[in-house]
Each structure stands twice: as structure tokens, then as C-alpha cells.
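re the bet — no i am not wrong, look at it urself. input seq straight from the record:
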Amino acid sequence: MSSLVRHVTIDCADAYALATFWAGALEVELSEDDQPGDPEALVESPGANLLFIRVPEPKAAKNRVHLDLQPQDRSRDEEVERLLGLGATLFEDHRNPDGTGWATLTDPEGNEFCVERSQAERDATAAV
């Protein structure tokens, strides 16, 4: 029998605060069992579950693994703006004038993640 990925686990300084950001980013609810100060917090979402674990050491380098988000009901650029409003920071902008590309953001603890084009944007580019 094969294995399944149960969680993507992210080390962090404040599990509850970072899980709250990601619950907002993914537009899901944070578990009512998770409270400020907890050493871990879980964000359950349709794409993947994210488990945040408090660790004593700070982030020291570029992530070796990162998340790629694809908006479902808005454009890539609208999603970038929404995430910036939640507390993300634009890290590198790889968006092209023709609509292709992606934006690399960081979450409130500096973890990199990317926002890609929506499927509708991909379909529109392919139809040209």
C-alpha cells in the first residue's frame, strides 16, 4: 500500500498567528481547538492540510519547499492584492506583460509562496 501526504508541516515562531494568516489566505476556518500560544495549529483545506509547529530557531534561509497557490474565483493579480491585505509581502514579481508568470510573496514569518494564474486565465492565454 502507498503512503499519503497527511500534512505539509511548517516550522514557525507563532503557530496560531501563522495558521490564522494561512486560514485567511485559503479562506477556511482555523480549528476551534487551536488557541493563541498553542505549540501547533492545523489548517484543513480541500487542497492540503497545513500543520504549523512552533520551533525555537528563526527562519534562516530560503525555503526548500514552498506552496504554489492557484486562485479559483479571482484573477492572479486580485489574489495577490487580497493576500497583501492579509499581511503577505511581495518578494519577487515574475508577472509578464502578456499575463503569464507568477508572483512570489512571503507570509508574515518570511516563508516564500507563489501565486499563479487562475485556470480561467490559463485557458484564455491558451485560446489566443
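see?? The CA atoms of residues 12 and 109 lie 7 Å apart. told u. also The beta strands are 8-12, 40-43, 50-54, 67-69, 89-95, 101-106, 112-115. so pay up
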